[in-house]
Design a protein that fits this description.
ABC transporter transmembrane region fold, 2 domains, four-stranded antiparallel beta sheet, about 525 residues, ATP-binding, ABC_transporter-like_ATP-bd, 10 strands, ATP binding, cell membrane, alpha/beta, single chain
Length: about 525
Amino acid sequence: MLRGFFTTLQNYFSEYVGHQTAYALRLAYYDRIQNLSFEFHNRMHSGDLITLGMLDLEAVRMFFSTGLIRLILLTLLIGLGGYMLLSTSLTLGLLALSFVPFVAWRSSVTQLRLRGTWLELQDRLSDLSRVMEENLSSTRVVRAFGAQPYEMEKYHAVSARALTLAHDRVGIRVRNTSAMTFSFLIAMGLVLWVGGGMVRSGEITVGTLTSFLTFMTILQMPVRQLGMLVNSFARTATCGERLFALLDLEPAISSRTGAPDLKVEQGRLVVEDLTYSYPDAERTSLDGISFEARRGETIGLIGPPGSGKSTLAHLIARYHNPDRGRILIDGQDIRDVSLGSLRRAVVVTQQDSFLFTTSLENNIAYGDPRATREAVRRASDRAELDQFVAGLPDGYETAVGERGVSLSGGQRQRMNIARSLLLDPEILVFDDSTAAIDAGTEARIRKAVTATADDRITIIIAHRLSSLMHADRILVMEDGRIVETGTHAALLALGGRYAALHELQFGAGTAPETEAE
């Protein structure tokens, strides 16, 4: 009865500790990936992160119920039981425990082998998660090209590699468990053989021999579970190493201790000799960029793909730290202020308009969940979205499908713009955020944004000249440098790269005044 009672307590508390540990690790893991830099997420595939946060973390959790408890139980049984047996009969005690050195050696060797296979298996499971995640994210592309057989073949190949290694691991564990059990049974046979002779000669009683055999019978099940114990240690060591390697990473972008909040009064942005290269990049993304902008100004950035426009926007919001130079807002270096206050003052409207699986209102108010319905409507109206929402059966309560697949590209971008306008930041950056919007709607959005532009600095990154011809100043970028600066009319008169791009998009006969309107 006592054994059953304590076994129940053991099972309950081992599961309790395991789940509480997993809960704490899960929060720590999620917090860490929320704060790691763009460079980290550019290197890591989301499928690998999902495997790490699910399978590896689950392996650590299971260690408490499948590994630690069994280790404590086996240590107590062998330690206390061994002392009792040795104090009763040294000869039989040594025979009863003769399997321990062999088991310890086999366990060490097997753990090293299993640890290596666990590491490889986790990598193969990461590949499996990566293939599945990519397939689910690209379902429309797969259907459009009729690539289901190819995707099935690819998934089958990756899954078969994981299955083969899993079979190899089972073979290693079973052979090890069989060898350890066999050594235990040999030790038990020796106790029975030698002990029987000692009973016949009168050295010990039948009861003493029975106590030895009873102890070994009790020990038989934990010894058979040694294979699971070794496997649990190997898996936990491997998965724990991968998990804690990520938890130990220091975010490349963070607020220094005690950093003050950004205070914006004049609304003056200064970029001084900004230089930046992505890790392992072959060339510099930005090289000596310098310019200044004041509240009420609209700055346009244009240039070929890879010229550094988006990189500059990300540096202003401090998604990266520059290699050289600095960015000042009202004389404050953005590296010396708290990230939270900087991100409230500088908002980048990304080209990738990601939407969450929730209502339209919640998506628009994502940056400010406490925003009123009226504020959401005003932002939607300026983004030319209010009429579209009004025509929906549930209005702003309409649920958006996963990643916004139920909306068109232009509708998603307008929601992205409304999300940014709701925050009313000091510096608003549009990173080619109207590429999927038709020219008429874009003109109306530009007019609405311009009406409130006196209260902020507006930076527009675009490939279409019509998106930024109204800007107070246009910066033409090429190979990470600013090669031309001026108004739309001045750049046309200059006859350089901007004028060539204008002729390419509109032809030489279109008057600048007409386009600017």
